Amino acid sequence: MEQKIKNITIGTDPEFFLYSQLENKFISAVGMYEGTKKDPKVISENGHMIQVDGVSCEVNIPPCVTAEQFNKELQFVVGYIRDTIAKPKNLIISEAVTAEFTEDQLNCREAWEIGCDPDLSAWTLNVNNPKGYENNIRACGGHISVGYDNPNEQTSIALIKAMDLFLSVPSVLIDEDVRRRALYGKAGAMRFKSFGVEHRTLSNFWLFNPVLRTWVFENTLKACEFVNINGIITNEDDIMECINTGNKAMAQEIIEDYNLTIPNEEEVYHNEFA
Known about the structure:
It is built from 5 helices and 14 strands. By secondary structure, the chain is α+β, with helices and mostly antiparallel strands.
């Protein structure tokens, strides 16, 4: 059997908010530090980068080959923002997926810019055009990028579908936020990349503790293996509906049908970076 996905690397560029406990409100990252979408700030020789995305903080890590490395790289770069940017300003890193900002935090052009270019649905092959902001609610993504040898569109589409199965469906039970899906993160959201593909459905719910970070890494590898063994998804419509509507009962049924893994709630603790 030909292995379609070889020499796998996994990366991510998650976003998160800053919060003031003293003022009891979310604080815009605009102007907090250098680094933009077009020109991220490099903070290490290994390629860790930071940038401001709208009102949120965004971090980039080097491509990883083990869950241990994935955890280590994220601990470093998120910890950098915590220690050098948040703490000196008496702020904390929030684990919120979505947040409502006060008017004074949105009083600039950057706060109303959508930082995302259109992406594609792996299921329908339709383009998802980002909508403009209509209120003060903002959302954070936790996109996962997969690099592999000689990437091609057919394999990348199959991989995104598998990642929806192994990651997005279980996330319906894990991710407690329900507002983000109205803005972003529909089933199969993806972008083709020169190195492979980016899966764009997940929020940042998994970022804040090592159990969930490890689960995301390992289930991404399981999705790659599923494609390599020519795994068959028999209920595409159900998977799309489950993800797009947040149907927990449907998610549980799909998890049981495919024998998917989901972290034990007792093992998961939140906000390692607080």
